[in-house]
Amino acid sequence: MIRKFSSRSPRKTKILILGGGFAGSNVLREIQNKFGNNAEITLISQDNFFLFTPMLPEISSGMLHPSDISTPIRTFCKTATFCHARILSIDLENKAVSVIRIFDQKETMLEYDYLILAMGSKDNFFGNVKH
Ligand SMILES: Cc1cc2nc3c(=O)[nH]c(=O)nc-3n(C[C@H](O)[C@H](O)[C@H](O)COP(=O)(O)OP(=O)(O)OC[C@H]3O[C@@H](n4cnc5c(N)ncnc54)[C@H](O)[C@@H]3O)c2cc1C
């Protein structure tokens, strides 16, 4: 009996993580541990570093150097891919995210099966700060 083998490997589940702060990098660690190479994980962030904000006062007082509290996001990517880009929009219907890459300003679309939103929040000074 001749057995047929498909040359194509089964399609991997695509997971997109938007944002590389505390939330994004922690969820990245969890899902990398859980899925390993069984999922195609991509983390997108406009900053290519993780900033440990609780120690920012030590930077302004000169006790630490900025590099002491910032870590390249790529060092967290064991099986995942890092995409250094600014997120422009999310198309929930077609499960796609539009981004503009930082290095060449090229606009591109990334598809996903599962989307994790971890882009932080906006400051609100309730009108007490004049810009
Ligand atoms: C000085 C200071 C001290 C703090 N100290 C403490 C503390 O001691 N304890 C504590 O619990 N909390 C502290 N915080 C608060 C803590 O930093 C935040 O709660 C935390 O950073 C929120 O994490 P996050 O992942 O939700 O967002 P963030 O850390 O803000 O991460 C958001 C990520 O999304 C990316 N992003 C956003 N928009 C886009 C876009 N359009 N395209 C691409 N990427 C995008 C950003 O580049 C960033 O990487 C402190 C904050 C500050 C400023």
Run of helices and strands? EHEEHEEEEE
The largest sheet is:
6 strands, mixed
Total number of β-strand segments?
8
CATH architecture: 3-Layer(bba) Sandwich
Basic shape: globular
Low-confidence stretches: none
Mean pLDDT: 92
The structural class is alpha/beta
CATH class reads: Alpha Beta
The N- and C-terminal alpha carbons lie at a distance of: 77 Å
- β-strand percent reads 25-35%
Helix count, per DSSP?
2
For this structure, the CATH topology is: FAD/NAD(P)-binding domain
How many domains, as an integer?
Answer: 1
CATH superfamily: FAD/NAD(P)-binding domain
Gyration radius over CA = 19 Å
The helix content, as a percent range, equals 10-25%
Ligands in the structure? Answer: flavin-adenine dinucleotide
Report on this model:
The chain has 131 residues and is an alpha/beta fold. It has a single domain (13-117), classed as FAD/NAD(P)-binding domain. 15% of the residues lie in helices and 34% in strands. It is built from 2 helices and 8 strands, in the order βαββαβββββ. It has helices spanning 22-35, 56-60; strands at residues 13-18, 39-45, 49-51, 70-72, 81-91, 96-101, 107-111, 114-117. The chain has a 6-stranded mixed β-sheet, with helices on one face. It has a two-stranded antiparallel sheet with strand order 3-4. Strand 1 (13-18), helix 1 (22-35) and strand 2 form a beta-alpha-beta unit. The termini are far apart. The mean pLDDT is 92. Flavin-adenine dinucleotide binds at residues 19-24, 44-47, 53-54, 56, 86-87, 118-120.
